[in-house]
Structure formats: structure tokens, C-alpha cells
């Protein structure tokens, strides 16, 4: 009954989305206020209906309603409640419903917070948003209905992919989708602007909070995914350049570029068509990522049901959305007139450099991800593009990006001098050079590259904080605009991420050892004793658990208990790493295969500064949220006319 | 010229979409890593028979003028269980010549497994120390090779064969329509 209600609500939502996607557009072109105001009502109704539908599916999961096929295929009555709920989006159909839900919620948010938008712009944005929604809702209803029934109902379900049964991963998809789907709003704004033929400072000011919100969520989503890979896959790494990771990195890079170029449009009325293109691309790359993950054209560690028929549908949708947007762009963008002129050395110049480098990075990731596919199709050769390619391309591109990052905020608009800016950064320069020397002499003299990267990390932190020094001196730190504070936090936290990843990947210690209970091994100054092996029973798994007593100089230090879990329903084994952290380094242990006769394979890692990677990423998103809370950026910012005057 | 710059993103998309559509319709499997064995004479075969009292397997068994299917399996391998009925069908309905090789498997275990599930193999060998598997470029079980009458490897499947492999490649190969 509830499942049918959910299904019905989804059908109604599609109908509402169709209305929302057409009539307000007509209204906007005719100047008919009644038709335009329909957009807001429809957006709220659609969000309510999809929410109802999502609630119905969640209810089926929580109560283990095995007459619903989707629940049978992805849940099990013995599963803990958290994973029953996260199981809703741990599968293809449910995750698409979550997409549709977030899309509708963003539409409702535009309807609620977009009070100050001109009527035509708002109704066009809402209509575009609804048209994207039509695609997703139709996709759900016609190819991936989550409410399909099964008769007779089986006594129990197949359970969720064990890799996904983890608190980190329970919230990874919703955050990631908030990011992906958030860029649909910037896409809608871009298309609406192209339809109106008008991109100005006010437009940039309206679109930027949405881009910022999407970017924050995407940052958190990517960080959570990387953290999960770090502790569940048990390989000791945190980023593997897997196609799925790359798929989320591309929109992030494009979104970051968009955040910066929108500032130029807002302040200087320049870079208009470029910013519109980025707004289109951020969402297009999100869709491309979805396509790559779901269609099965690439291999990856991810466990989504891959299906060429669905792939075709997503490809058609991608073509329609991206192709439609880009065709409109090719047609209308040449008419957008750029405004302000500026010298190469200026705030604008620095932001353009930032955009060039970020977009080159995104293009590099795209090329590296798709190259194996192209080559295989054209020549039949199989290659895999991995860390060597990305290290070789990312390092030379990131170096100028990081170097310029601290200088940019010290440059004035229109025209600036490099000398004074560098003078104000002299302390940061000295400190980072000192960091390089320290890294070379005290940590590891073999890797110059790691030492340089370490220096860049320090440069980012100190250089970003340097822009606060004037305010500290004049005692005006408390009156600093939140958007500036947010920028400083995000820029500095990038340095934290760089320090964490350089230290972890360059200066870690690892040991692989076959051990039997009672064996002791010396590892990086610690003495590790395999005290015993136990068999443990979880709610839906059986596990082998190693108890490792770690001591320093004869004194007990910590106990680590890595496990190897066998999920009985799916017959899959998952390693559960044990990590002891003091925020400066991780002591990381995983349990491999083994038996009492030959012993177990134990891997130990000492990862310096590893927690900083995720700490930095969280700070980075926090900076975005701080900036978002700035009153100037609030979504209902000023109306168009006064802003135009103010910009003169 | 300036106009062209604005059309460039659209053209890039069209090019990419073309590749994607091609990839989706080509039926290629991105997980397959290819095989260096294809197009070359089958590697050496010199194994004791699995079933007691039978003659050992030799290279001559691969060069009979008729197509042969060689399947590496093991009783401890779950995917082997999944593909087994397909071999049974091939042997019974199509009269295919299938050589089964038990890989890293104890003789009694492999025989018990075949007894339980049915034995579709015309000849069966035992590769306990996995040395033949090494010669054949095996990365695990199950793997299956199609070998033509002259002893040339025509296809190499890593992982269990599927219904689709059966209709699309194996049956046409046996009927001689695919070289």
C-alpha cells in the first residue's frame, strides 16, 4: 500500500514537473505573471511529492517489506537500522530517487529563497530545473522503478553490498549528490541567462551562493569517499585515481573555477561567457561522472549494477542536457559583451590564471579517465592510466596554482604591482623555504619533490593567513567580512591537505609480516605483538579479529584490532582496518588472509599527517560555509538595478 | 573564427558522445584484459589424466582437426560452479569436445565435484602444481580457451563463460562460422 502511494506520488511529481518545465517558460517570454508564478507553486509541490515517494521507499526498507523487489535485492532483515536506511540509496534505483529528491529540493530552495530574483529569471531557472527533473523522474518510472513488487514475497532479502555497510559510506552518496545536483542550479541559471541574453554583476551575485553551496557539499562528499577508501580498502592509500574518484573530481575542479570566475563577473563585469560556460560544465561533468559510473563503459572498484541499456538512457539524457546547454551557448554567448579592462598583473589576471590551471587540471583528469576507453575502441589495445600519469601532470600544474594562490588576494583590481604583494608575503616565503630545508635535511633527503611539495603546503597556510596580518595589526579582525574569512580558511586548509597527502605518500613506513599468535615484530620504533586471534560474530557477519599489542620501550602503547569480516549472506570478505591516530600520524593495521598453521598476513603502516588530509578537506568546506553565511552572499541579495548602479 | 570558439565545447561533446555510444553498442567488456595467447599455437599440454585409468593428456589431443574447448576449473572455485551447466549443455546438445583441467586441486576433490555436478569432459587432466596453468597464462580459475583444429588458440575467456558467450562466440566457433 505504502509502496503504491510512493509510486503514485512519483507519477504525480513527473506530471507537476512537466507543468513546471513548460508554462513558466511561456509566461516568461510573454510577460504573463500568472503563468510565471506557477513555477514556485509547482516547485514546492514537486518537492513535496518526491519527498513523499522517498519516504515510502525508506519505510519499505525500515520495515523490511520484502514484497518490494528493490528491498529484496538490497536489504536483509538482520541488517542494522542505519544500513537499512542507507540501503535506500545503496543501489541503482534508490540512488536515482535520491538524485531526483535532491533536485526537487534545490528547486524548492530556489522558489523559497529566490524572492529578490526578477520574475522572468526566477521562472526560467525553475523551469530549467524542472526539465532536468522530468528526465530523472521519467528515467526512474520507465527504466528503474524502485517500487516494483515481487510475488510471492521471499522470506528474506539478499543484503546490501558489504563494502557499503559502513558509517562513512552511508553518508557519502547523499553529500556527493548534494554537490552534483547543486550544480544543476548553476546550470539552470546559466541557461536562463543565455535565454535572456543578459549576464551582469547581479546575475553573478545570485548564482554564486548556489555554486558555493554545491561546492561545499561536493568537497565533503569527496573527502568522505576518500576517507572510506583509506580505512576500508586497507591499501593504506587515500586516493587511487580510480575512474569513480576522477568522476567526482572533475566537477569539483570546474566548480572551483566557477566560484573564482563568478567573482570577476560580479566585481568587474568581465569573463561573462567564460563563467556561463563553467556553470554549464560543472553540471555537465557531474552528469558525465554519473554516466561513467553507471553505464559500465569503464571499470572501477565501485559496485554499481552496470547495465548498457541504462547507460544509453543516461547518455541520451547527458546529450540532451549538456548538448542543449552548449548549443544555446554557441548560439547566444557570442552576443555577451565583456566589460572591464585590466592588466595581466591584477586580481582579474590572477583569477584567470587560477581558471586556466583548474580547467587544465579538469581536462587532464578527463583525458586520463577516458583515454583507455578511446584507445581500446580505436586500436583494441588495453591500457590503464594510473598514478604515474596523474602525478606527472598534476604536480607541474599545481605548483603555479599554489604559488599564485597566496599572491592573488594581495593584488588590486584592474592593475597591480607584483613587488609590494610579494613584500607582504616575505614571512610566508621565508617560512616555506625553511620548511623545504627542514624536510630535506631532517625528514628525507632522497625526495626533493616531496620536500618542495611540503614547502608549498606551508606556503599555502602561512601565505593565506598573511592576508589577515593587516587586520590583526589594525585590530579590525572582528569586522572582517565573512566571505574574506571563508576564503582565508579554504585557502589555508588546502595547504593542510597538501601537507597531509605529501607526508602520507612520501614519508610513510610500512611492513608486511606473516605472524602467528605470540609472534612479535619491531616496526618503526614500536614493538608489535600478535596477542591472539578471535572469531567474532557481528549482526550479519562473522569475523576473524587479530589483537595487536603495541608497545614503546617496553611500555604498553595501544591495542589494535583489525578484522576480516565475512558477510554470510553475500559470501564476501571485507577487511576492517584498525587505526590509532594522534592527529599527527596514523598507526594503521590490516589483517590479511591466513590460517593457524601458517600464520596470518599482517600489514602495518605508519602514516605521518594522514588525518590532516580529511581535516583539511573538512576545513575547506567549512570555509565555504562561512563565506556562504556572509550577508552579502545571501541568496536573496539585492535586486538588479541598485547593483548595476553600485558597480558603476 | 570567434564564433568557432563558442561551438568548440559542443563539438567536443559530440565527439565524446560518439565514443560513448560506440562503446555501449560494441558489446566490449572493459573488464577483459585481453590475452596474448589468441592467434598463437596452444601452449604445451602434458598432464596426467584426472580420471583413474585414462591415458595422459598430450599436445596431440589439441590437434585433431576438430575444434576443442579447454576449461581450467577447480572444485574450490565458486564461479566454476556457475559456468558448469553451460559446459554440460555444450557436451550433451552440441557434442562439443571439452577438455577439463583441474587446477591446484586434489584429485579426489575434483572427482567428487564432477561426480556431484556431472562430468561434461571428454578428456580431463590434473594440474596440481599449476605448472601447465603457468604455461597457458592463467590468472585464476575458471578460464576457457577455444582452440581450432590446427591447435591455434582462437579465444580466451577469463572468468566464467556466460549464456551470451555461448550464443555469440562459442556456438558459432564450433559450427565453424567464426575463425
Automatic annotation (TrEMBL), chain A:
Any stretches that span the bilayer, and where are they? 6-26, 38-62, 96-113, 125-142, 175-195, 207-229, 249-265, 274-293, 313-331, 352-374, 394-413, 425-443, 449-468, 488-507, 609-628
Annotated Cytochrome c-type biogenesis protein CcmF C-terminal domain ranges read 315-631
Q: Per the database record, which ranges form the Cytochrome c assembly protein domain?
A: 89-295
Q: One GO molecular function term?
A: lyase activity
> Where is it predominantly found?
membrane
Q: How does it sit in the membrane?
A: Multi-pass membrane protein
> Is this entry keyworded Cell inner membrane?
yes
Q: Where in the cell is it found?
A: Cell inner membrane
What InterPro entries does the annotation carry?
CcmF_C, Cyt_c_assembly, Cyt_c_biogenesis, Cyt_c_biogenesis_CcmF
Please give the superkingdom of this protein's source. Answer: Bacteria
Keywords, comma-separated and alphabetical: Cell inner membrane, Cell membrane, Cytochrome c-type biogenesis, Lyase, Membrane, Transmembrane, Transmembrane helix
**NCBIfam families per the UniProt record, alphabetical:** nrfE (TIGR00353), PRK10369.1 (NF007691)
Tell me its family: Belongs to the CcmF/CycK/Ccl1/NrfE/CcsA family.
Q: What does the protein in this record do?
A: Required for the biogenesis of c-type cytochromes. Possible subunit of a heme lyase.
Q: What is this protein called?
A: Heme lyase CcmF/NrfE family subunit
Please tell me the species this chain comes from: Reyranella aquatilis
Automatic annotation (TrEMBL), chain B:
> From which domain of life does this come?
Bacteria
Concerning PANTHER family, the annotation shows: THIOL:DISULFIDE INTERCHANGE PROTEIN DSBE
Query: What is the protein name for this chain?
Result: DsbE family thiol:disulfide interchange protein
InterPro entries the record matches: Periplasmic_diS_OxRdtase_DsbE (IPR004799), Redoxin (IPR013740), Thioredoxin-like_sf (IPR036249), Thioredoxin_CS (IPR017937), Thioredoxin_domain (IPR013766), Thioredoxin_ResA/DsbE_sf (IPR050553)
Q: Is Lipid metabolism there in the keyword field?
A: no
Q: Which residues form the Thioredoxin domain?
A: 36-175
Enumerate the subcellular locations listed in this protein's record, separating them with semicolons.
Answer: Cell envelope
User: From what organism does this protein derive?
Assistant: Reyranella aquatilis
> What does the UniProt keyword field contain?
Cytochrome c-type biogenesis, Disulfide bond, Redox-active center
Family that this chain belongs to: Belongs to the thioredoxin family. DsbE subfamily.
